[in-house]
Specification:
homotetramer, about 400 residues, Hypothetical protein af1432, Growth Hormone, Chain: A, 2 domains, dGTPase activity (chains A, B, C, D), HD_assoc_2 (chains A, B, C, D), dGTPase-like (chains A, B, C, D), HD_domain (chains A, B, C, D), HD domain-containing protein (chains A, B, C, D)
Chain lengths: ~400, ~400, ~400, ~400
């Protein structure tokens, strides 16, 4: 029988090849297609107009890098069965299936305190039933239960293809060239030793570049202060809506799936919750914001209009917390300017921490395999730039204000 | 006073510079910000997952090319005043302001039979009032009333910066490298003679490349059969909804701005219509489709679900029309399969023409200025490839079917 | 045993992987290393300053595309043994081994009337002896004797990886974006049917693009009139030197390997000739030009100085031959200006034909495999642009003059 | 009068525009054309096959960045007269005019102990006479005598366009993407304050990227151990030849301009020396190596053959010097293997230091202009990565050995 093959144009990698029935089945599944309607970078497009790419696109890109990584490891004689190969590709396609609208920006705000990965595993299991158990090995690899640890590490570790794709892709679509990581060279440098994913010695400069590019993406993109302001405004919009609902409002109803989450307030996973969750995406949130832009509540209405028209709250960053006096003064000023009370002004003047969650030396790690057979963790390498980059996470404080 | 300057990252051109108060005012205006919520390529992302860029991004890109073109012409000593320079840049920023949701795919479906350019001019005039007449020269250039024709031709002609940007940008985001037109070389080749925009003789191969790239983009992207199928499905969804509304349905109400256009059916421009129009964007249509996916009407519900989950109608292209017998047979089969009547089956089996509207020799044209001072239209050049490319528009017939 | 692997940075493709002992042995061989000292594009760098890449680089690039093509065909279940795979890669590495200095510009001028391919095969046979017959299958594939024709076609046919690489590479280094052919998509579209290399039906637009890009490269680069002028001057320099030698000159001696070819005038291949040939490269010609720039013969001296300092002869192209009167008048003028006789002026005023040797319908061809199993030659496809591009070769006449 | 304009294709920046008579005169001058025959990166092409670009190409590229930088500063209202603009562009075109064959690899080896900049200024003065003093302001800017320091700093400082171009260009042609510096963003961030070139506050991350990219280029490219080995071999070849000449050899004569430098041993600049210098380029050295490959001296012959055929000496790097015992042992082994004495073996086993001459905090510096008007040097910025990158130069020790 002729193998069917499909190629998908990708501006980042050129072409992505699909050539296995299970991969086709996953891509055609409504749960996967839903990812088309979730922005990969939430509201970052308010600063970087090109950053409108979707989570589906990222999943396909990570799948492509997985194909390359597997081909490389097989060329290096690492034993990988055909079944494992398909399973690890299936797993990477599904790794973000549990993301809700606006991805990380609203993480844990949709189903109270439930992480997207927990939802993801539940959804994979539902799909696995539909697909007659064909996803079992993929799930085992994803959850770290499969005996060959390097397969899991390709999906989730400091050097997984997930990170490689999102840094590359986010750098591409934002146009921030500082984020180019050199994924192709890193993949050429991967190897497996004692069942673990490692990087060959001559790949150290590639790792250096990867870590630095990631650092630059954090400060220039992921924690860009204007993006931060927009995402915090989005959260305040949802919090204000929840508050109104708690006090009896019915005008926050959108007529769509979001109502279930706002009015039923699920805080754990059930079959019904999952069914509803799979109908929810960025469109529901965007529609709500447009609708609430004429809601009678002044705070909700104002926040929504500001976000819609990109009239964002001013934001400042500092290495130490802002004083209570300063915050209070700003709130008073905002209250006066908008003719609201100070409790309401909390939605226009607020503060918090932005954290650059980099590589943590005691947590996961990148192992280097030296030519002489020695294995060292990246934190043990004699390279001052790497040391500087991976040492303790950098924290900044932000304050959003009306003017 | 210090000139304020802002640079915007663009993955296509690197950086776009904004440095004039009028340009800032336009970009910050809600009418312009609305273009963030309109996909440049409608549903093309169902085939090209990267093609999710927005009309706002295209407008900024065309503005950037305008800056380059003006700089080039000024370096060639073409007289352009500072006021004209700002006006022509303002005009290109606003050239697509009248686009409704899903751009060309729904052209004339939102306000019955009214073209986006008509809406655009009306919106520009509203903005002009708000901005104390500062847009007047831009409007004059846009509508062709300004005495220097080349300024209008930079905005709207066979070689305008609008086309240069959308071909370049669409090629970039789809990843279809065949569409790369070489905009930078074309701009270097522009000149003005007797008030008209022309191309220098040595630019002929660049024009050849431009025309061929455009042709390839038509067949590979704009008229890609799967994209065509999706866009026709979208139109059938709206037509079915309108039909239901005409026969008394109230369940098509979405709770948003779309309701005004569906239930009031405006067919000409009034202040109220424009106000509503400016609140409408892709989000409203996408939300409607999601909502109608559980509408009781089987046809509407099915079309919406299919489009949402990318289960598109099959489509075939041919150089001659499909026979009535074939169409009828397909409709019968579809009716039987879905258990509907044949009138309803019209929404699952339908036919039409796809036209590649290329350069038309008798319409607008590209003028070449030879070194010896002679001027010739591109259609009069001794270049068989150009002749072949620009001759009469190519037409294909399509049929969409259920299976 | 661990397979050794080496990766080479290539600005065009990223990384080229070497991982077989025979491939290492070829690359490390002095005959192959000699290709470092031969410009891929002869004197084109006088117009395109970036076009200084070497024939070694091209050979590595063609090898890389061969690796991709073989991987693609194997993924499509085309049977290719490991031995065949190595052999076809070895053959492509060696396909240009017979090139002399300045490649095509001096083709047949070094060893009188002997084509580079004839020299190449002789050199491959010498290497084969050194390498204990390990090149035999590569030579059989190269010379078309091996039973699977598609292997030979990958090396030499209208769509071979040689062309794909040189068009891509020359386009890259010249910066002429019109020459981008989309090699990756073409390779994805290759298949084998009845032992022959074919292109899948959906690859037709890629072929269209390939043919058009090739056409543009011919006119913009390979037959660029200034490049033509420089290359004709180079030939006139060598012809003048030969003429002087024929009439007894000894001052043309350079002290290097070129002397053997100038003074011994070999016109067929012998072991000695081959030994000398392998010591000859662009350096010898460049050194000769520098030395002859102070040769007492005025014609030789002047041509050399002009070429060295890029003071090239003027050149005009026309679709019909230049009249004898015009040529004579130009020669008279040149003779007068330089104070030389008219026979000498022939080296400053001369004429000839430049031919765009495109795809010839009756010669080799590109076969398209349709989904329905039908096979058609590209010339039989219903595509007017392709027809126009591949029809009879285009010829232009040139004249070089002093002023 | 119509301004003549010429555009040159550059694969790095797209197009370079030439549009002033003085710039044309410089580019057409034989001294400038000579730079076509000098590799920008000496022997780096032995590791990076694409790195064959020339010093002429770099000069054109630096000129292009200068055009961009001047346009940016003028857009920021920095006063720059037309005469200054042409002069600073002329100066950057000429900044490397004093480079001899193989650039830095042979620096001070051609004219004993004379730096290329000294030669360059002498050549500029000769050209200035020919050009009727039109280069005077360019020379004043180049030598730092012109009153506006920022013009000189654009040519020579930590952030000059020279560095920006060579890092960008060398990264491009080697294919080492780690070296991409983001020149366009840096140029957008340049400003002038109190006559000095500065970087705006928001450009700090661009500077961080620039410094890190430079660091990576040093270790991966400029001090790549194999490149180092080849360049040291080249020096040993010249030293051996000089030694033979000192002891009476005449067979080192090449018949070209190199003989003057080898046999006359000029150690300061005179008109004759300069005349000869302008005839010397990479071709002379390459030809000598090819000729000496059959010189009777075994050491010279062997080194030349090894370099020609890329059979390079083995090289090791270490953070501390190699012990004398180790060096002696290696020399003994080499002497025995090659059947030479230990004094001769010095050319096959030798040691030295490779230094990464980075930004030195007390030397030149990069000034940052903060929004509040404050000026701080880059070394005073609160950025640990920058600190790490610019701190004391890193030194490694190398040893080359026969096996």
């Amino acid at each position: 029988m002729k193998t069917t093959q499909k190629i998908i144009n990708d501006p980042v990698y050129g072409f992505i090849t699909i050539n296995h029935p299970l991969i086709f089945d996953i891509i055609n599944h409504p749960y996967f297609q839903r990812l088309r309607r979730i922005h990969q970078m939430a509201l970052a497009y308010l600063v970087y107009p090109g950053a409108v790419h979707t989570r589906l696109h990222h999943a396909l890109g990570a799948y492509h890098l997985m194909c390359n990584a597997i081909a490389e490891l097989k060329a290096k004689q690492i034993p990988i069965t055909e079944e494992e190969e398909v399973a690890v590709k299936a797993a990477i396609l599904l790794h973000d299936i549990g993301h809700g609208p606006f991805s990380h920006a609203l993480e844990k705000y949709i189903i109270n305190s439930v992480h997207h990965e927990t939802i993801g595993i539940a959804l994979m299991q539902m799909m696995n039933q539909e697909l007659d158990g064909r996803l079992q090995m993929a799930i085992d690899i994803f959850t770290g239960k499969y005996p060959k640890p390097f397969l899991h590490q390709l999906i989730s570790s400091q050097l997984d293809v997930d990170r490689m794709d999102y840094l590359t892709r986010d750098s591409f679509f934002t146009g921030v060239s500082e984020g180019v990581i050199g994924y192709d060279r890193i993949i050429k440098m991967l190897t497996v030793h004692q069942g673990e994913l490692m990087v060959e010695e001559k790949g150290i400069y590639s790792i250096e570049k990867f870590l630095i590019a990631r650092r630059q993406m954090y400060w220039q993109v992921y924690l860009h202060k204007t993006v931060l302001s927009a995402e915090k405004m989005l959260i305040h919009i949802l919090e204000r809506a929840r508050h109104l609902i708690d006090t009896g409002d019915t005008q926050c109803k959108t007529g769509g799936t979001l109502d279930f989450f706002l009015y039923e307030k699920p805080s754990k996973i059930s079959e019904e919750v999952l069914q509803q969750f799979c109908k929810l995406d960025d469109v529901d949130i965007s529609f709500a914001i447009k609708k609430w832009a004429s809601h009678p509540d002044f705070v909700l209405q104002t926040l929504c209009n500001k976000l819609l028209n990109r009239q964002l709250l001013k934001i400042k960053l500092d290495s130490k917390p802002f004083s209570n006096e300063f915050i209070e003064a700003q709130r008073k000023a905002a209250a006066q300017q908008l003719n609201i009370n100070e409790r309401q002004a909390v939605h226009f003047v607020f503060t918090g921490e932005a954290v650059n969650t980099m590589y943590k030396p005691n947590d996961e790690n990148i192992k280097i395999l030296f030519k002489n057979g020695e294995i060292r963790d990246i934190s043990g390498i004699d390279n001052p730039l790497i040391h500087q980059t991976i040492s303790s996470p950098i924290k900044k404080f932000y304050i959003c204000t009306l003017t």
